[in-house]
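Before relying on records like the one below, remember that each one covers exactly one chain. Contacts with other chains, cofactors or solvent are not represented anywhere in the record.
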Amino acid sequence: MSLFHQLQLREQNAQPIRVGVIGAGKFGTMFLAQALRLPGVHVVGIADLNPEQARSNLRLAHWPDDRFGAGSVAAAIQSGATFVCDEAAMLIAAPEIDIIVECTGNPVVAVTHLTAAFAAGKHVISATVEADALCGAALARAARQAGVIYSMAFGDQPALVCDLVDWARTCGFEVAAAGRGHKWRPEYRHSTPDTVWDHWGLTAEQAERGRLNPKMFNSFLDGTKPAIESSAIANACGLSVPAAGLAFPSGSIDDLPNLMRPEAEGGVLEGPGMVEVLNSLDADGAPIDYDIRMGVWVCVQAVTEYQKTCFEEYKVTTDDSGRYMCAYKRWHLIGLELGLSVASVGIRGEATGVADAFRADVVAVAKRDLDAGERLDGEGGYTVAGQLRPSTVSVPMRALPLGLAGDITLTRPVAADQILTYDDVQLDEGLAAVRLRREVEAMAAAG
């Protein structure tokens, strides 16, 4: 029976999946725009630091005022409306709520929310992929120990890649590589919120209309978000990571089979089974036709002559050997697709992607020369960007994870393009995010 049919039955039987949303920014608003169209799903409560802004975003997403007028969780349950507040703890503690959707985008805050939700017996769908890159395997273990489900958010690229990789392996193919697309130039790694729209391809007016956060969008442009999402993909799919970080090879969708194979076979990969990001710009910075900038892909290898023959018979676009082909989804729709995670977790009891190890890490790299006493501003800001590294490289060098590089002070100078280390800052070891980070580092050290 399809998930949608099962949601309809939930609606008919007055047994909705009850959801609490933490964070009503861009991702949260995109999900909320769809939530009114999902049978069998009741958004009981929304928590945001700025409730008035959350209400404004609900109106932007075409919610009538009477749908978010409940004065408490209990009133929301009784009326079928939604309670808006500024206290995430109220939603986490509410016994009526089945699933917490965490979409604050702040990894330190998110880990606190996630671990509290596990302790309260709540399933969690995390749209804060930064938390997954920071300590996803430890979060997954904590959820298992609590007897609940921890899931990546469908609509975000990592969960979509997990779906493609699962398709490939369940069909009997060998995964050569998987990843997402991106618009990339090496100089973008120094981009700041002041320069993002010039490079992104939007006007300031378009950004304002969409209520787009320049710091968040800059994290995509400067390479941080591709590193974060590639880390999540590697840790959930058992894929390897380039030793020096993402290479961003240029190409179209049809170039993927030739590019995403090992160097020994004419491709760009260090070896089989890796994550990588395909660049939608050529060497001169010109757009490439039929790009996958906003999408995801998996490259599979025919391991038998019969598979290869079938590729040929069914006119599959392959590499020049006929052995590698790609499946892809050209677009991802972020929060507009989150309903699939809600239904999968709430009905099937299945995550739409979850880390099972700590193979890949995202290290903080200085965007410019930084002085002792400067305050780091984290993902997408003015001081650091994130780059992908194998955990076998990052952990021994005591690299500072990008997820802990927000709102902390440097204790000594760091040169531009240098990887920061724990010795450059002073962390609050009492934070849940730091504690779980230590757990995944211990996993890496133990092999």
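The first strand starts at residue 17 and ends at 22.
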